[in-house]
Amino acid sequence: MDYRKEVDKATEDVDFETAKYTVELDTSEGLIRLDLAPEVAPGHCLNMIGLARCGFYDNLVFHRIIKGFMIQGGCPSGTGTGGPGYNIDAEFNAKPHVAGVLSMARSSSPNSAGSQFYVCLDAHKHLDRNYTAFGNTADAASLEVVKKIGVVETDGSDRPRKPVTIRKATVKVTEL
User: Fold this and answer.
1) Buried b / exposed e along 85-122 (16+ C-beta atoms within 10 A)
2) Closest Cα to residue 141, out of 100, 96, 110?
3) CA torsion angle for 54, 147, 163, 62 (degrees, to 10)?
4) What is the spatial distance between Cα 70 and Cα 123, in angstroms, rounded to a whole number?
């Protein structure tokens, strides 16, 4: 299914000049609050807001967890091969990939991102300017939940042995 029209409709009221946007992921391991950074990647922020508002991320799993590296979710098939039915262009920027940074997963093609995202568990300079960083954990409690997910036991394919689920993704808007 192609979610492009739904995402466009769900983001008609988004105004980065007058409001701050936070995506809250209610996971099976706790709440992760993600502050978005539209000043460096407005298209990626808009995309995540739209997908969250459409319910796209609800009940999806973190399908890939690599200790000390990152936790990855946002695949509708739970395999790492799915997406929203469209791609978005890369918005490479200077935001460093450090612990708690939200970034977009993609294939080897720079403009192949869609819905899959990851949150870094530690600093990874090799990702800087090669992947689109577009937010970060909003607080220490959120980073702790990310770290808790980051040590879940995985199989040889980095897949969690026990599913870690995003129960619901919601968007919080704070007027500036």
Assistant:
1) eebbebbebebebbbbbbbbbbeeeeebbbbbbbbbbe
2) 100
3) 40
4) 10
How many DSSP H helices and E strands does the chain contain? 3, 8
User: What is the distance between the alpha carbons of residues 148 and 106, in angstroms, rounded to a whole number?
Assistant: 24
Q: Which residue has the tokens 């695949």?
A: 75
Report the phi/psi class of residue 143: left, alpha or beta, with left for phi > 0 and alpha for psi in -120 to 50.
alpha
Render pLDDT for 103-143 as a digit per residue (tens, 0 to 9): 999 999 999 999 999 999 999 999 999 999 999 999 999 99
The CA dihedral of 159, 33, 60, 87, to the nearest 10 degrees, is -90
Q: Would you call 8 helix, strand, or coil by DSSP?
A: helix
CA separation for the pair 110, 166 (Å, rounded)? 26
Take residue 75 and report the two structure tokens written for it.
Answer: 């695949």
Distance CA 137, CA 159 (A): 22
Q: What's the pLDDT tens digit per position in 40-56? A: 999 999 999 999 999 99
Residues near 4 by beta carbon (within 8 Å), at least 6 away in sequence? 84, 85, 86
What's the token pair of residue 56? 């796209």
